């Protein structure tokens, strides 16, 4: 009996197992995995799935070990980044029989397919043609023909050819069904009419792009009185002239990459603004809690490249939610949707509202008390006055405007002042006589409830107490907002965004909430004054540096809340594109660029004439000794040596008298002659002084440069590009004389002076700039010119997958075939083409440079009022016009670069050269030894303008090189073999400004990965200084008390920046206030603390680990600071001493010795070089603060009056220097 029971139980178990097996084989659910698919695409596939027996799941590249639990795997390999190990996991699953289909592989190694060709082609066709019908059939095909199930199987339909509908819209009667398609405007308008959506005279808005779920956006725009045209292919819509009958008021692009130059041309012609709301591409809660907001490829494609199209308002609108099955879906975040739609409507209102009814709030920046208003390179008071005059001319209601800019400035000092906490008497007087706007508690808190979440306002109360706080408060509990109102235009000072004595940190950001006064000013602008537009005047204020997220801001971030839905414009210097990007991305500002001061040569050649003459005598004596003329007579030989010694001593006597030996670190013993190399350094230093470019008087908006300064600026822009290009061509032809290359004076004689003469002719008659002149100047044939043009066009055209992505971004069907690769050219061919194109570009544009400088001041004013009319502002690169003439004309919206493509190929080549120059300069000073560790500073302006040349230096020092994917992005690295490198791998440590951190986080990750690779290199034929540095850092950390495990982890940390997301070092206030420190160690400790946050990985982003930065600085032998602008130097820009000086001081306190200090000089795009800091300071001081020409220029305009009114006596040199330094550009 027992045996029968056991036998029966066994049979039952077998039967159950058999039934389970049969169920799993033929009847169970079909589990389909999707790898690397966009949530929006996967959401469409999910909506198409009406079969409960088909289960869809998203699998990340970190979960590839789970693939075998699925019945079918789809992999979108476009841009997919997987490790070798992960790729092997996929291949193993495919080899084990798992059905896998990979599409759009940009890396051939990722193209893993385990289906037969018929199955693969069928599924691929369903995917390519898209649409819910095809997706539904694709899933049914998988269940029936691949998974082999027998129940709940619908017969898949034949592939439906992809719709070429130009316009789409949800059916209001069936909103959950697939959108309806239309190919004519008439047909679409009839549909709108039928559904009550076509309103006569209503604004027309176009929505395009693929990176959002637009249904709710369309609905909300329609609810608020707009007619919406959702367009699949904007290029086709324009090309077929269908857009002509729409006459849109705005275009909204849910961007993933550039639209292209065609859209810039169209928007410029039609004057239509372009908005680019963001999809944060993750769950809303994750995004809100993320300190970064967005980084890497999504930042590049959603924010950076659309800016090149002239896009504004990178406002986070779309996010993800998770459904019951765990699948993510994109949606418009309701709270964000309300604000974004209101914002678009507010810009459109500017197009229709009469100017005399528009209300404009203009914020200016000034320091406390009697400090003048400040903006980079600009005379603020007359510039602001000129803008007000222009607004009045354009019909704006600007009542009570004073008779002059000087009177305006006096009014601002009286009624628009900012006060330090110490100025109690002045503050009391202002509250009585300055007529501030007084805000009551009830009013303020009603505004706060509209804008701030309760927890955000709790941060304010925690830091500053209940309203009104201590600052700008009246005795009866109201809060004063300083402002000057002229009719419908109000001027407001930007109040301090924090508290304390550190003025720099207060401007450049703290981690704390801003005080009541700061918040009240912006909320009064929105709700009390009821502004139609907000303007920030001049580079720069503090709004964009308030906490917290770096980009893709949320409703928890202060700039997002304080700007609100107001159209926002920022008058910004072309010379500071790096910080301009922060204003665009964190404060939603449309930038309006303005000119730098003009440029001119230093005019100090006469001061050093005696020295130059002595050097000429010496060089003649060198020639007499080396030309063999005295070989037969030993007495004459001796006489020549005596002459040479005498000539050398004569040079030395003059150099020492002038103090040049100090800048060049040469001895001053007058009885010991200088060597030939030392005199060459003196000669080149003197020639650099003579040819150095300096800035003229501060720029006044609306006022063209003087005629002489227009010409001198064109000389500065055009002379060196031609001279250095001709030298490059002569080097290729082996014509360049070695002496000319070594001696700057000979370069001036043989190249610069002829180039200047050519520019003089072209200024007189630009029509001379013909192909014939180009060929004659460059000594090339017309065929060679045509070849150079062809190469230039080929190298600049989008290639491979980038061209494919641009097509897809415009709604075109993406070809799945392999894209052709770009033409390969030799290094010599590229050098030739670059030189010839530089010559052509300069010769043909001399007249345009002059015209642009003349017209820019008026264009700035016209562009500003066009923006206030809700129009489109053309995009523009940034940088001073010498470095990049394409920044002209001004009055345009600055853009940056795609960080993912850096360092560019050109930057990599230049980075190698500069790194080698650094090593050679160090070896020359240190008995042929190389540096063990070099410390670099990264600034955003340099990064943008050089395309990552400093990052290239860092990588090459480590002995690591970048690898590019099919899109041209630097996504990976490889070790340069030790034998090929030919030297030890040199360790690095990096300090990043907050601005660079915000725009290029992925490059910081790249650097830290490079450090780890270099530290673990196994093939080294030389001592690996990176590995040695890691060992030393670990030892130091253990000595400081860390556990061996923690010390080992932290020992590779090499990328540091401001703590708590700050933008500065925090030492400026200490340096400027001598009573705040007793020893330099206190400053060094403050610097190490404030700049000790780690930014080398997403995992540890912004992590502060005690002693990590200090340990990283051990063994540092040199520090390097970038210098990319001709508008500032180490003396005139306080950020240099703040960053480089702070780093130098910290290294000295950590290592006990002063490191070598160098500048990476990027100011001449044809002659990047390294320069010792002492030498650079010598050049700057001698050509500016000790140069009568410079002082005379800076005393022009109102600068002189402002200085003299502060004192009855004429200011001495120190006072003038202090004044100019305060007014110089602030830039990183």
Determine the number of helices (DSSP H or I, runs of at least 4 residues).
Answer: 48
Terminal residue distance: 91 Å
Approximate helicity band: 40-55%
Shape verdict: globular
Q: In terms of per-residue confidence, which ranges show pLDDT below 50 for 5 or more consecutive residues?
A: 501-509, 813-820, 1200-1228
Q: Strands of the biggest beta sheet: in what spatial order? A: 32-31-30-29-26-33-34-35
**Rounded to an integer, what's the Rg over CA atoms?**
33 Å
Largest sheet: 8 strands, mixed
Strand content: 5-15%
Number of strands: 35
Mean pLDDT: 89
Structural class, from helix and strand content?
A: alpha/beta
Structural description of this entry:
Mean pLDDT is about 90; it is low at about 500-510, about 815-820 and about 1200-1228. This protein has 48 helices and 35 strands. It is α/β, with parallel strands linked by helices and about 1250 residues long. Helix 2 (about 40-50) packs across helix 5 (about 130-145), helix 22 packs antiparallel against helix 23 and helix 30 (about 780-795) packs across helix 32.
């Amino acid at each position: 009996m027992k045996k029968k029971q056991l036998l029966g139980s066994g049979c039952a178990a077998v039967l159950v197992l058999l039934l389970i097996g049969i169920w799993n084989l033929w009847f169970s659910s079909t589990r389909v995995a999707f790898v690397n698919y966009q949530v929006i695409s996967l959401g469409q596939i999910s909506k198409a799935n009406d079969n409960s027996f088909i289960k869809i799941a998203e699998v990340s590249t970190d979960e590839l070990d789970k693939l075998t639990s699925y019945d079918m795997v789809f992999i979108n390999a476009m841009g997919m980044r997987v490790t070798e190990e992960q790729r092997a996991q996929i291949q193993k699953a495919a080899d084990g029989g798992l059905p896998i289909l990979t599409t759009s592989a940009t890396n051939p190694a990722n193209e893993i397919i385990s289906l037969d060709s018929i199955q693969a082609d069928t599924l691929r066709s369903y995917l390519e043609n898209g649409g819910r019908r095809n997706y539904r059939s694709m899933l049914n095909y998988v269940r029936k023909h691949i998974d082999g199930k027998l129940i709940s199987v619908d017969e898949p339909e034949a592939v439906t050819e992809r719709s070429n509908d130009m316009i789409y819209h949800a059916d209001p009667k069936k909103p959950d069904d697939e959108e309806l398609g239309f190919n004519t405007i008439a047909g679409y308008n009839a549909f709108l009419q039928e559904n009550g959506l076509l309103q006569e005279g209503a604004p027309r808005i176009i929505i395009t792009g693929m990176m959002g779920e637009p249904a709710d956006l369309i609905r909300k725009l329609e609810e608020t009185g707009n007619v919406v045209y959702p367009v699949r292919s904007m290029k086709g819509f324009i090309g077929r002239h269908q857009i002509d009958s729409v006459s849109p008021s705005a275009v909204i692009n849910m961007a993933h990459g550039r639209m292209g130059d065609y859209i810039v041309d169209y928007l410029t012609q039609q004057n239509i603004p372009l908005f680019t709301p963001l999809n944060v591409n993750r769950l809303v809660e994750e995004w809100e809690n993320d300190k970064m907001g967005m980084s890497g490829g999504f930042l590049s494609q959603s924010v950076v490249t659309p800016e090149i199209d002239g896009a504004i308002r990178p406002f986070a609108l779309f996010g993800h939610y998770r459904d019951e099955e765990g699948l993510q879906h994109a949606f418009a975040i309701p709270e964000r949707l309300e604000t974004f739609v209101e914002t678009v409507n507010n810009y459109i209102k500017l197009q229709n509202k009469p100017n005399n009814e528009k209300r404009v709030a203009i914020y200016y920046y000034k320091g406390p008390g009697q400090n003048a208003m400040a903006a980079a390179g600009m005379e603020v008071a007359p510039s602001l006055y000129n803008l007000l005059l222009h607004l009045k001319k354009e019909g704006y209601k600007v009542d009570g405007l004073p008779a002059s800019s000087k009177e305006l400035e006096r009014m601002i000092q009286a009624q628009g002042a900012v006060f330090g906490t110490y100025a109690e008497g002045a503050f009391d007087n202002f509250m009585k006589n300055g007529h501030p706007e007084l805000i009551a508690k009830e009013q303020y808190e009603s505004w706060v409830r509209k804008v701030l979440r309760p927890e955000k306002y709790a941060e304010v109360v925690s830091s500053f107490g209940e309203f009104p706080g201590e600052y700008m408060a009246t005795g009866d509990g109201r809060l004063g907002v300083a402002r000057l109102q002229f009719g419908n235009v109000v001027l407001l000072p930007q109040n301090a965004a924090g508290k304390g004595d550190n003025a720099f940190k207060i401007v450049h950001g703290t981690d704390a909430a801003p005080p009541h006064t700061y918040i009240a000013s912006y909320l009064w602008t929105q709700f009390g004054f009821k502004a139609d537009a907000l303007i920030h005047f001049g580079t720069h204020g503090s709004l964009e540096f308030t906490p917290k997220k770096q980009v893709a801001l949320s409703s928890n971030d202060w700039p997002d809340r304080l700007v609100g839905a107001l159209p926002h414009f920022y008058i910004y210097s072309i010379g500071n594109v790096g910080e301009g990007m922060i204003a665009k991305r964190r404060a939603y500002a449309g930038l309006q660029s303005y000119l730098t001061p003009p440029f001119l040569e230093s005019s100090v050649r006469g001061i050093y004439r005696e020295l130059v003459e002595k050097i000429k005598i010496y060089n003649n004596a060198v020639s007499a000794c080396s030309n063999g003329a005295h070989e037969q007579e030993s007495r004459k030989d001796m006489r020549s040596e005596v002459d040479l010694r005498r000539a050398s001593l004569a040079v030395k006597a003059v150099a020492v008298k002038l103090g040049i030996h100090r800048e060049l670190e040469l001895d001053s013993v007058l009885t010991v002659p200088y060597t030939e190399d030392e005199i060459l350094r003196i000669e080149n230093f003197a020639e650099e002084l003579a040819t150095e470019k300096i800035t003229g008087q501060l720029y006044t908006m609306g006022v063209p440069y003087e005629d002489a300064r227009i010409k001198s600026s064109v000389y500065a822009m055009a002379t060196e590009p031609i001279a250095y290009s001709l030298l490059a061509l002569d080097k290729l032809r082996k014509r360049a004389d070695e002496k000319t290359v070594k001696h700057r004076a000979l370069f001036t004689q043989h190249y610069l002076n002829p180039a200047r003469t050519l520019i003089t002719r072209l200024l007189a008659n630009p029509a001379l700039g013909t192909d014939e002149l180009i060929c004659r100047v460059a000594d090339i044939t017309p065929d060679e010119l045509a070849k150079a043009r062809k190469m230039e066009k080929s190298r600049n055209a989008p290639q491979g997958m980038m061209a494919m992505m641009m097509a897809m971004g415009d709604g075109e069907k993406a070809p799945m075939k392999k894209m052709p690769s770009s033409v390969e050219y030799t290094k010599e061919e590229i050098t030739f083409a670059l030189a010839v194109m530089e010559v052509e570009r300069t010769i043909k544009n001399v007249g345009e440079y002059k015209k642009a400088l003349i017209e820019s001041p008026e264009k700035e004013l016209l562009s500003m009022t066009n923006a206030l009319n809700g129009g489109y502002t053309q995009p523009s690169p940034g940088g001073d016009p010498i470095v990049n003439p394409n920044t002209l004309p001004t009055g345009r919206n600055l853009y940056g670069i795609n960080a993912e493509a850096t360092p560019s190929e050109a930057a990599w080549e230049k980075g190698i050269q500069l790194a080698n120059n650094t090593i050679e300069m160090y070896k020359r000073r240190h008995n042929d030894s190389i540096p063990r560790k070099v410390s670099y500073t990264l600034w955003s302006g340099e990064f943008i303008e050089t395309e990552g040349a400093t990052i290239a230096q860092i990588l090459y020092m480590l002995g690591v090189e970048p690898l590019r994917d099919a899109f041209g992005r630097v996504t990976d690295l490889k070790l340069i073999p030790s034998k090929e490198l030919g030297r030890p791998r040199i360790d690095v440590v990096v300090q990043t400004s907050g601005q660079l951190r915000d725009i290029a986080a992925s490059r910081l990750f790249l650097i830290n990965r490079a450090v780890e690779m270099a530290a673990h290199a196994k093939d080294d034929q030389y001592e690996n200084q990176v590995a040695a540095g890691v060992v030393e850092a670990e030892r130091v950390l253990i000595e400081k008390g860390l556990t061996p495990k923690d010390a080992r982890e932290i020992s590779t940390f090499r990328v540091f920046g401001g703590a708590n997301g700050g933008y500065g070092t925090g030492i400026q206030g200490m340096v400027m206030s001598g009573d705040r420190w007793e020893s330099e160690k206190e400053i060094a400790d403050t610097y190490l603390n404030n700049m000790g946050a780690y930014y080398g990985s997403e995992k540890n982003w912004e992590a502060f680990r005690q002693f990590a930065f200090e340990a990283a600085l051990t063994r540092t032998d040199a520090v390097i600071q970038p210098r990319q602008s001709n508008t500032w130097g180490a003396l005139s820009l306080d950020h240099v001493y703040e960053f480089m000086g702070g780093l130098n001081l910290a290294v000295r306190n950590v290592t006990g010795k002063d490191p070598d200090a160098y500048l990476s000089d990027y100011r001449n795009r044809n002659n990047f070089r390294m320069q010792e800091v002492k030498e650079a300071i010598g050049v700057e001081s001698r050509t500016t603060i000790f140069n009568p020409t410079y002082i005379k220029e800076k005393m022009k305009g109102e600068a002189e009056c402002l200085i003299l009114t502060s004192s009855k006596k004429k200011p001495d040199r120190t006072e003038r220097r202090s004044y100019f330094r305060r007014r110089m550009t602030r830039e990183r």
